[in-house]
Amino acid sequence: MCRHGDRTPTSLYPNDPNSPSDFPEGLGHITHKGKNDQYNLGKYLRTKYEDFLTYDSNEMRARSSGRERCLESIQTNLYGLYPPRDAKVWNSEVDWQPVPIQTMPVDLDGMLYEDAICPADDEELERIRESPEGAEVMSNNANLMRTLEQLSGKKMTDWVSVRDLLDTLTIEHDVLIAAFTSAFGVFNQLAVPSSTAVITELHEDADGNFYIQMLFKNDTTRKPYRLEIPGCEGFRCNLKTFKAIAKPYVVEDWRQECGLEPLPGGTNLFP
């Protein structure tokens, strides 16, 4: 699981000194640095798993959100991960091979897109906004909200407006990786850098027991950190224990939980 590469702002605020023409890639697309980071991440994965990972297309599946920056990222990542070699070279002038990428429209993607259509989620967000706790957050940060409005020229109606402005000024906090690591008690409470990867490895010991090792790579130029999952023995997590920790967070039918009608054929790409 990895985050897309560095991107340009998704939008500009009214008092923004920049203009869309300052971003030749277009708003919301990955930059040259983002492409290079993803390429280097792919090369790292190829080097790390060289003796394990073959070029058999049946051994891997690439799944991406339908967001263009995510599709751009996974393409450059796979370019580093699967350079054509031997029988895979299809053109001597091209050091690249096509690798299938599975995706779906973002509004229907309850797996990888946090803003997919979900009435139940919208209702919960509105409940929080109208709650005493939500009102307290707004009251405690009234001066900050006024300052942000004056500087940006953007109306700050609630903390969601602040989040949208933050997305423009910096890089959005990646919800997917934050949620995944939080579920296993290893989220560091920091914004997730672009091109961050969470690697989940399945191992088998000499006695035939399976265990999980989780790695966190938040810098494409450095080795990943090993994550120690609470409730597991050190950096090794028995597979049964791992599944038990994950079970409360597994959604069997996200459309049903969101209050949506099922779609013909379902919406899961992976069985």
Automatic annotation (TrEMBL):
GO terms for molecular function: phosphatase activity. Pfam families: His_Phos_2. Residues 8-21 have a biased composition (Polar residues). InterPro entries: His_Pase_clade-2, His_PPase_superfam, Histidine_acid_phosphatase. Residues 1-29 are annotated as: Disordered. PANTHER family: ACID PHOSPHATASE 5-RELATED (PTHR11567:SF210), ACID PHOSPHATASE-RELATED (PTHR11567). Belongs to the histidine acid phosphatase family. This is Lysosomal acid phosphatase. It comes from Rhipicephalus microplus (Cattle tick).
